[in-house]
Predict the 3D structure of the following.
Amino acid sequence: MSTPITLEEHQRWMALALNSAQMARASNEVPIGAVLVHAGKPIAQAFNQTISQNDPTAHAELLCLRQGAAFIGNHRLTDCSLYVTLEPCLMCLGAMIQARVKFLIYGVDDSRIGCISQHRIHKTPGLNHHLQTLSGICSGECALLLRDFFKARR
């Protein structure tokens, strides 16, 4: 039986995701960061790179999942938790389901799309995997980073 993860542990991993998001911002990418945790250790960390890679799939979550799968040596990430600063999009959620990520923790809801917070797509009957979710970890910091980024671009 595993020990429940404390709020402080969630905040520690989200702080790493926020560091990645800051790297995205410094690269003029949308400031979203992700960290994949396995057995209490971070095994992958990434930030959005869609612009720099000219790749619409180079979201922080997908890059992190790719790194994690390579690290573990398996396309299934069944015992992993993914920390992301913003609620994942439909593409990223689909990849998490395919990878069988156990737990998704994100900082702030995506008020535009909200495929988890508004539409609850991860709970769709018939999916071959239903990941657990938790939102609101370091939400203030995550929201401020995004708000400041887009405000500066206007």
User: Anything to note?
Assistant: DSSP finds four helices and five strands in the chain. Helices lie at 7-26, 60-72, 90-99, 139-153. The mean pLDDT is 92. The two ends are 50 Å apart (CA to CA).
